[in-house]
Amino acid sequence: MENKQKAVARNDSSSSSSSTDENDFRHPVHKKFHLFGRHKSLHAALGGGKLADVLLWRNKQISGGLFAGATVIWFLFEWIGYHLLTFICHSLIVSLAILFFWSNLSLFVNKSLIEFPKIELPEELWTQVALLLRDQFTCAFGIFREVASGNDLKKFLYAIFGLWIISIVGRWFNLLTLVYIIFVVLLTVPFFYEKYDDQVDAYGEMAIKELRRQYSQLDEKVLQKLPIPFLKDIKQD
Predict the structure, then answer these.
(1) Domain residue spans in the chain?
(2) d(CA 58, CA 71)
(3) Which of 18, 52, 76, 220 could serve as 46's disulfide partner, Cβ 3.0–4.6 Å?
(4) What are the pLDDT digits (tens) for 44-72?
(5) pTM, full prediction
């Protein structure tokens, strides 16, 4: 009797394990889609340091100060017509004049002298900026070399299309306005993307699927019919 009960228990356990395995096989875990193929948080993807804190407005004073300063500089140069060298000289003249007269007047009004703070730029922040720029330039040169080698038509078309869009945008804005727009985008897009990442990732997934579908149709109807040697080699492989 005990042997029969053990056999029944083994059969139940084996059937339950097999059913769970079948359920796991029938219902695979769906991996959540993220833009740019990232597998970690946006803060970690941006480096996880002070630069990421600034871009994601974790330190609102620094982020707000940079945003306000860039806006003031853009307004002075774009609307008032200031030149860079003139702006720097006038700023230094006003600052030195105020500090010089205040230091001398403090002797007559029994005020303590101004103690000028020792300004040290944060080494970690500028190191991260330099490393980020180095990585981006290295990646850009690598992509340029790969596209120019003539082995990937898809990347070649992407590069031509991207440069064509940039050339059109360059007609609408001058260099200063374009730099200011890029700066504002860097200070706003990551912040809002982190806040609404689920919605953005969902729309991004649909957009990427649609682009891939359009490209597959273009590849089937046009690109595969072009007399390009390496396309035939790829098709044979």
Answers:
(1) 86-112, 122-151
(2) 20
(3) 52
(4) 777 777 888 888 888 888 999 999 999 98
(5) 0.54
